[in-house]
Amino acid sequence: MRWKRLISEILVLIAGFLSVSADEAADSLRIERYHKRLERRQEAWNRLIPTVFPLQYAGGMGMFSAGIGWDYGRDNKFETHLMIGFLPKRYNSSAYATLTLREEYLPWRIRIASTPFEVRPLSVSLAMNTIFSSDFWTSEPDRYPNGYYAFSSRVRFHLGIGSRLTFRIPERRRYVVKHISLYYVVSVCDLYLRQKIVDSAVPTGDIFTIGIGAILTI
């Protein structure tokens, strides 16, 4: 009887130990999953933090424009820019503000040996630009015959190509900014391209705009 009682107590202890171990393992798994969820959320928030800050002069986005952006993809070949532009009154009857969303693709990076410089020989961009003014419209106003204007005067789409020269700040001298880039972009908007297609007499050079700028990368 004593042996039976001893074996029974040992089995109860083993069962209790196994139960505690299982609970600890389950708790550990729940904690691990919780931390992974926190990490994913933190990564998602981090992706929303801007990593580039573009500045541009001219280029069909206003006389001056500035904004925020993100670089991503393998070797940071892609960039998205959100920019606000300004066109002073002296160039029009009124001063205008613009908003531009631009996507850039930079397929190649060439490091200049023994220097902190690198070249992005090709940049291809697609941008959508709108102007904030009641003088322009998205839908054709009622005062015009139906179909008189086959396009929106407020929204423009731009296709551009350019190049970029980047100075990589040495790590020992970095505070916030890692790279400073200078660039140019030659672009054509949908309206000017349509005019050229409709009327071949329009000089080819007149349909293109040139913008120059700088990009700070953090």
Description:
The chain contains two helices and nine strands; from the N terminus they run αββββββββαβ. By secondary structure, the chain is of the alpha+beta class. It has two domains: 1-48; 49-217, Porin (Beta Barrel), CATH 2.40.160. The model has no long low-confidence stretch (mean pLDDT 86).
What's the arrangement of secondary structure elements?
Layout (H helix, E strand, L loop, with lengths): L1 H47 L3 E7 L5 E9 L5 E10 L8 E10 L4 E2 L5 E16 L22 E14 L10 E11 H9 L9 E10 L1
Antiparallel strand pairs: 1-2, 1-9, 2-3, 3-4, 4-6, 5-6, 6-7, 7-8, 8-9
Shape assignment: elongated
Beta-strand segment tally? 9
The percent range for helix content is: 25-40%
CATH topology of the largest domain, by name, is Porin
- Structurally, how many domains make up the residues? 2
- Per CATH, which architecture of the largest domain? Beta Barrel
Residue share in β-strands = 35-45%
For the residues shown, what is the average pLDDT? 86
How are the strands of the largest sheet arranged?
1-2-3-4-6-7-8-9
Summarize the main sheet: 8 strands, antiparallel, barrel
Secondary-structure element order, N to C? HEEEEEEEEHE
CATH class group of the largest domain: Mainly Beta
Ends distance? 77 Å
State the helix count.
Answer: 2
* Radius of gyration over C-alpha positions, nearest whole angstrom: 30 Å
Structural class: alpha+beta
